[in-house]
Known about the structure:
The chain is mostly helical.
Amino acid sequence: MAVNKLSNGKWQAQVFPNGRDGKRIRRQFATKGEALSFEKFIKEQAQDKPWLGEKTDKRRVIDLVELWFNTHGITLADGEKRLTTMAFACEAMGNPLATEFNAKIFAAYREQRLSGKITRSSRVKTVTPRTVNLELAYFRAMFNELRRLDEWTAPNPLENVREFKIGESEMAYLTLDEIRTLLSECEKSRSKDLTTIVKICLATGARWSEAEGLKGNQIRAGQIIYVKTKGKKNRAVPITETLQAELPKSRKAQPLFTPCYSAFRKAMQRAGIETPAGQLTHILRHTFASHFMMNGGNILVLQRILGHTDIKVTMRYAHFAPDHLFDATLLNPLNKIQIGLD
């Protein structure tokens, strides 16, 4: 594309909207400004002019990933994590053209990830089905979002790819005796904040990061108000006067505690408590939810306290309710025979 001044004093705009091998458009104007404006107009409108022919989409999947991040992903709390994950996958798949990307390409990549042929770290040789399910979810969501933004008009290439079925992971929780032992070990820690943070998690079901990152202005009127949460919604959880009396008195928008994750890990080791992989601090949240239901709590109230956006996530704790499926003991046919109701 170019704008040149002709011998007759006029300015000519010469435009190739679809590249040098495509249709050429030339027009003369009295001023250079008009020629430049025309050139810009043709560039912007090329895709909307059917007589110019269909423009070939030469974007690669990584281009779509970057476009998604700039137009939407940047607003997500885990946007950069998704960007990094999808960029790695694109490179591992050979940076395919977006128009050629399909379920077969992704399935081959997924198989290699699971077998350990493609790794992101020299320390981790293989990944779990949950990891590749997450990668599938990222790409599928990306294409869906770009369709909503009119940046991608073709069908979602991964729409019909099914996730691997994964069994429910073990959700360990602490017994009352284990809680007492843990709190005793926390008191022995050099961290002056450890015991308080653990108590907050046990009393409100907070995630470790939510409790550890509390600021003074989040505690008021007998409640702890959790903000910028994983579920994107603020939630307020009441606390007892006893617990509130143990909390720092500052009401400023400044952190109340110093990080003490490693101190918690050591306290758990001293207490002799083992947890399933990945549940070191999350066991406190599981403990709150489990005891809440065992003590007769309402599953819908628990959902609000934990901040789950999907009730199905909270339903994992339903079986802890004292009357959970109790009718099975009353309504089964063997019971009817035993009590002589046949």
